[in-house]
Design goal:
Order of helices and strands of chain A: HHHHEEHHHEEEEHHEH
Largest sheet of chain A: 5 strands, mixed
Strand order of the largest sheet of chain A: 5-4-3-6-7
Oligomer: homodimer
Number of helices of chain A: 10
Helix content of chain A: 25-40%
Strand content of chain A: 15-25%
Shape of chain A: globular
Structural class of chain A: alpha+beta
Number of strands of chain A: 7
Chain lengths: 227, 227
DNA sequence: CAGTATCCGATGCGATACTG
DNA sequence: CAGTATCGCATCGGATACTG
């Protein structure tokens, strides 16, 4: 039923790749996720049952390998050589989405998802030498996404940690932002100047931390794709 | 239900592209099909209902445009600029399939499908100056695919026509072939010498027509992708 | 030729509960 | 933490018949 009955190379590739959720699972692995729960964090709306099924299918197709980590005992997923060669396809899909779609609407605004991705896009080399605690407060969340709206980022070179609970220590930089505007900034659709000027985003803290912010926050992988 | 609830560019692109049959419909249009029945010939296993639905969805997403032909009155589908930019993604999928899968098995051996694609891959410039009638006879068809097994290709520069009924005139070249072996040759998995040597394929006709055959038959679009 | 309307059945998928 | 087993339903998609 999931087959196409054609020997065309596009058809056989689609039988592996073009299943529901599969391209996004690969996106997560390309982005650096290795463990089941890590992959699941990037795909909160997939059921664990279906995620397990898809990972098994990818394993059977020779796209990922599952097993104990090379160093250390935990179970992990790795890409095979064949899986690695899906990267240009996923990149191509992302580039297309960046160029041709309106990406932020009220159906997909999710602060937790944004922060999970953001935490993976920190330029560690650009961070200040000392420990930094950044608090993110989001306003304007749609009712349907009843997730958290306050997050803390603990930046301690070279470590980055995302917290959902107040770490308790002093906040060095507060990012107080309208969620939609911040997502548009994240995706490259609006500049930081723009969203700060119209007061959608407030950066509160010592001047040097405010100035450093756009240096270490890399934004979305696709933010540089031209429209 | 078909959405992913994420503003990630990969996710929004997948909502358009990664539906069942959609990449193959785009492949057909990229390959040159313009009319509904033409697209359907390249996808014999999709129902007309579903093909119409998918084309409508692609139209709504701004990927194809439907309307009367620019020159002439018939209805036709054309790619928009956005649709054209899916081409590298489809190419990438085809290249992956060519490199990493076994493509010919008994579940997808379909002589009619092969001939429909073959007829689009003729190097018209390489054809002999005069009219040529080529007959293809396939052996070893799996029982489940009860399609035709004899086809005629009418080559009359610059026109190429595929016939399912005997045109009646004299055959200049007979291609008598095991279907599986010929499909493997078509896909670039085996050379013509190889399949002729082991008698899977017989070319019968005047020497000059036999020698010209591999010049004007271009094989699959992906046949040159390295394994 | 180029589709649409309607019906119905298979299966994809989520929810819940459970295990090593 | 990293999944699996089971159940039930929603929806996706095929078959058939019909239209401009």
């Amino acid at each position: 039923m999931s087959g196409y009955g054609q020997f065309c190379p596009v058809a056989v590739a689609c039988e592996v790749f073009a299943q529901r959720w599969t391209p996004l699972i690969l996106r997560e692995i390309f982005a650096g996720s290795r463990h089941f729960n890590e992959i699941h964090r990037g795909l909160p709306q997939i059921s664990r049952t279906l995620l397990a099924t898809r990972l098994r299918q990818l394993e059977d197709a020779g796209v990922v390998m599952a097993g104990p980590a090379v160093s250390g005992g935990t179970h992990e997923y790795r890409l095979t050589e064949a899986g690695e060669e899906f990267r240009p396809v996923v990149e191509g899909l992302g580039a297309w989405g960046q160029r041709w779609t309106v990406r932020v609407d009220t159906n997909n605004l999710d602060a937790g998802f944004l922060m999970w991705n953001l935490q993976r896009r920190i330029a560690v080399d650009e961070l200040p030498a000392q420990h930094l605690l950044v608090e993110f407060r989001f306003r304007g969340l749609p009712e349907r996404h009843r997730g958290a709206h306050i997050f803390w980022l603990v930046l301690s070179r070279p470590d980055v940690e995302l917290c959902l609970k107040d770490p308790g220590t002093d906040v060095d930089l507060l990012v107080d932002a309208d969620l939609r505007a911040f997502a548009q900034f994240w995706l490259g659709d609006r500049s930081l100047n723009e969203v700060v000027s119209d007061k959608s985003v407030h950066l509160v803290g010592r001047g040097e931390w405010v100035r450093a912010f756009p240096s270490w926050l890399l934004r979305s992988h696709f933010s540089a794709v031209p429209r």
